[in-house]
Specification:
With 145 residues, this protein is an alpha/beta fold. It has a domain at 12-38 and 73-144: Nucleotidyltransferase, domain 5, CATH 3.30.420. The chain is built from four helices and eight strands. The chain has helices at 68-90, 102-111, 114-117, 133-144, and strands at residues 6-11, 15-21, 29-30, 36-37, 50-52, 59-61, 95-100, 120-124. Strands 1, 2, 3, 4, 7 and 8 form a six-stranded mixed β-sheet that branches. The protein has a two-stranded antiparallel ribbon with strand order 5-6. The mean pLDDT is 86.
Length: 145
Amino acid sequence: MRRHKTWIVTADAGSLRVFERLAPGAELVELKEHALSAPPPLAQRERAPRVHDRMGPGRHAVEKRVAPREAQHRRFLHQAAEQISKWAAEGAYDEFILCAAPHAAGIIKCELEDACAKKLSAVVLKDLIHEDAAAIAARLKAGFE
């Protein structure tokens, strides 16, 4: 008989951890081989680049559309969503619970493929990336079971 695998995916802007539960109420086991982490943050410039005004000697700062750190966080969350979708296509889990801060959860949910999004059973809008398996299990039991 095949076991029903539930994954608990915890994520923030720089890392992703995966926990597995093989039966309702069973112990959570961290799958360390599935952990992802973002590269180190980009070096920041001291000041924004400058442009010349076409009329006179004035110079003005060029406004950034997206801060480099925010762009890096979005790239990582997009890659995390792609990886979660890839695991779903491979049949690594039957359903999953996403635990992330609201901003990160929103980006990941938007980037999931349709087949993977159907396997999403719950979203916990809390950053649990630094919690251990026992603490996450206790939070999930208090909130869902």
